[in-house]
Design goal:
single chain, five-stranded antiparallel β-sheet
Length: about 475
């Protein structure tokens, strides 16, 4: 292994091969602390050609490789195993925006670009790159693509998969596949770039991408709606889409317990309403032309209040008020951390069945674990719910977290029975390998393994992630 480290240093420079224990730590620990990996080295290539040379050297030596972007994932997909025999390949130095074409509405960027920097670059030329998630200040676009990241704008613009036109990928044998096309139409056989989107680095390393842009947003209207009946959320969403000409960008569900946790643990948080409500819906409408959205939203919400669908409404009157409303939604995970142990589920069902799923799963977990506090929140508009469980008040945290597998089975059984997904936007990584093997149809798994074997016959590209792999 010393030989491979020497080879890597010759390729990228000794300063870009990290082997000291303190230097390795940021690359070896998963964000939620579920995994603490080990590695012989972290290598930081500065170009696609250097990535290819690193991969070629590792492949020749039979050394496992773990691609890593911003290391902000929530399923351990970018963290090496505890064996310590792999090399982490970080894309953090691949930060060039190669081309920005506001006429074609495309941006070509390297994998190490931070998501927020791409949003800013698009904004400078009057465009919008709509991928948006809580970690956008530190996550990198290569990781977003490799996990098919979702976020708050999926309802309007789709997942990362829907925002990628082309890719450049270093394959597990070191070959560079150049699929950096900026075409909206290319009907010349298999769409190969889709193989690597959501593959979590198990089929190759994304080094650059052509991304879709959209006209910049010039009007944005945001409202927080308090209501009693969970089914009313679906009616409110449908009415908002129709009233606005389908300009709803985000539709986020917040339970009262989620708001209470924020008020208790997040400094500066305040309740937007004088009275509490069982549920809240954060609605945001946006348009690339000014005028009309405010009136449409107000009229729709006034009708909902008159009919009793909604009990109270707060409309943001400024950018500061909008940010305060979004801060409440985005702070729920952090507030949960401060309340003790949290067992998390990232599930999806058809949007029309979200209330049913929440009710069925809540009843089941409360029966199985008395005192558990259910905190279901998230992207109602696209059917994705973060069905999180906070430990019972005063419970022993390790003992509660030991229930993770049992709670997974209860929640995932219900979700799969409803033709849903056990991983809506966070991926599989290490966390859900066994769950995927349990729930995925045998033919699906066989097809996935055939693809993996064809592209990575040695099984050395991010081994142990997504698929169980010997």
């Amino acid at each position: 292994m010393t030989d491979i480290v020497t080879q890597l240093a010759a390729i990228v420079g000794a300063g870009n091969v990290l082997i000291g224990a303190a230097d390795l730590v940021p690359y070896l620990e998963e964000q939620r602390g579920l995994y603490h990996g080990a590695a012989r080295a972290v290598v930081r290539p500065g170009s696609t050609e250097e990535v290819a040379a690193v991969v070629t050297a590792c492949a020749a030596a039979g050394v496992a490789m773990v691609p890593q972007g911003g290391n902000t994932g929530l399923c351990g997909g970018g963290v090496p195993s505890e064996r310590g025999d792999s090399v982490v390949i970080s894309t953090e130095r691949l930060t060039r925006i190669r081309k920005l074409d506001p006429v074609n509405f495309t941006l070509t960027a390297e994998a190490g670009c931070v998501l927020a920097s791409l949003q800013a670059a698009a904004d400078e030329v009057g465009c919008l790159f709509p991928l948006s998630l809580a970690a956008e200040g530190s996550c990198r676009i290569g990781g977003n693509i490799s996990t098919n990241a979702g976020g708050t704008n999926v309802l309007r613009y789709g997942n990362a998969r829907d925002l990628v036109l082309g890719l450049e990928v270093v394959l597990p044998d070191g070959q560079i596949w150049n699929g950096l096309k900026s075409l909206r139409k290319d009907n010349t056989g298999y769409a190969l770039h889709h193989l690597f989107i959501g593959a979590e680095g198990t089929l190759g390393i994304v080094t650059a991408a052509v991304l879709k842009l959209f006209p910049a947003i010039v009007e944005r209207q945001t409202a927080l709606v308090g209501f009693r009946d969970l089914d009313a959320a679906l009616v409110l969403l449908a009415r908002a889409r129709r009233a606005s000409g389908d300009a709803v960008t985000a539709c986020e569900l917040i339970p009262r317990i989620g708001l209470d946790l924020c008020l208790r643990h997040i400094p500066g948080s305040r309740d937007p309403f004088a009275e509490s409500h069982p549920w809240y819906l954060l609605l945001e409408l946006s348009s690339s032309r000014p005028g009309g959205l405010r009136e449409a939203l107000e009229a729709m919400l006034a009708e909902a209040l008159d009919e009793g669908l909604a009990q109270d409404v707060v409309l943001a009157e400024s950018g500061e008020q909008r940010r305060a409303l979004w801060h409440l939604r985005e702070s729920i995970p952090e507030a949960q951390k401060k309340e003790g142990g949290s067992i998390k589920h990232d599930v999806a069902v058809a949007t029309s069945r979200v209330p049913e799923m929440i009710r069925r799963c809540t009843e089941a977990v409360e029966a199985a674990l008395p005192g558990v506090r259910v905190v279901p929140f998230g992207h109602l508009g696209d059917g994705n719910t973060h069905f999180n469980l906070t430990q019972p008040a005063g419970a022993d945290t390790p003992a509660f977290l030991d229930q993770w597998g049992r709670m997974n089975r209860i929640v995932h059984d219900i979700v799969v029975a409803m033709e849903g997904s056990i991983s809506a936007e966070h991926g599989i990584g290490r966390l859900k390998v066994e769950e995927l093997a349990h729930y995925k149809p045998a033919l699906d798994l066989d097809l996935m393994r055939r693809v993996k074997t064809a592209l990575d016959p040695q099984g050395i590209m991010n081994p142990g992630k997504v698929l169980s792999w010997e």
